[in-house]
Amino acid sequence: MSRPWISTNLAISADGKISSVARRPSGWTSREDHARLLQLRESADALIVGRGTLESDRMTLTVPGKPVQPLRCVVSQTGRISADHPLFQKPGGPVHLLVTGGSTPDLPAEVTIHHGSLAGFLETLAMGLGVRHLHCEGGGQLIRALAELDAIDEFHVTLAGHALFGGMEAPTATGIGVDFLPASLDFALSHFEPRPDMGECFLSYRRAQ
Questions:
Q1: What is the pTM of this model?
Q2: Nearest Cα to 203, choosing from 154, 142, 163?
Q3: Burial of 27 (0-12, 13-18, 19+ CB in 10 A)
Q4: Residue 185 has what DSSP assignment?
Q5: CA distances, 128 to each of 97, 123, 150 (Å)
Q6: What does the alpha-carbon distance between residue 141 and residue 52 come to, in Å, rounded to a whole number?
């Protein structure tokens, strides 16, 4: 499968859970973590998120001060995104929506709609749109889908030791923890930055050679 080089980024609680809008609003980590989020976006040709994360965090997927903004990609089964969402209101890179179900959403004309699988969309980004570096910011279901394709090259995580979410059905970095991945994926620690003053630790892992 032809695809871009793919990195991911998200924050997890001390018990390995990711934020859920039903339990905790976005912005629950430090300002330094948010600054790191923006920094990680800078080298990407395209950003990608699942629709649930886009909606809950009201994301615009932009990089302040970057002359050429990355493509803004969203994955959704239905493609139902409100036309007044900030994504469509704030200037940025072209918006590409992957709809994995059979519906055809009614969205602003400037949105490019793709139908098909995540694997096919990754190939379109690489071969058709010239995307070399794709950066994913969640949610867990999308990161799991990338992991099932063995398509993650770098994994960034903020371990927020100041929070506990708990719950058997609370989402993790790879979605609801029901089944194991088809195979274990091997990564090597490439960056370790503890910030005890904030109760956080910034970690990066690269695909093991």
A1: 0.91
A2: 154
A3: exposed
A4: -
A5: 15, 8, 21
A6: 9
What would the DSSP string read from start to end of 63-124?
-TT-SSPPEEEEEESS----TTSHHHHS--SPEEEEE-SS------TTPEEEES-HHHHHHI
Backbone angles phi, psi at 8, to 5 degrees: -130, 160
Q: What residue has token string 């994955």?
A: 75
Tokens standing for 117? 């699988």
Contact 199, 158 (CB under 8 A): no
CATH superfamily of 5-207: Dihydrofolate Reductase, subunit A (3.40.430.10)
Distance CA 92, CA 71 (A): 8
Q: What is the pLDDT of residues 2-23, one digit of tens each?
A: 999 999 999 888 777 776 544 5
- HSE (CB half, 13 Å, CA atoms) of 178? 6
Chain segment 112-169, per-residue pLDDT in tens: 999 999 999 999 999 999 999 999 998 889 999 999 999 999 999 998 867 766 666 6
79-117 exposure pattern, b = at least 16 Cβ within 10 A, e = fewer: bebeeebebbeeebbebbbbbbeeeeeebeeebeebeee
Q: How far apart are the C-alpha atoms of 144 and 8, rounded to whole Å?
A: 11
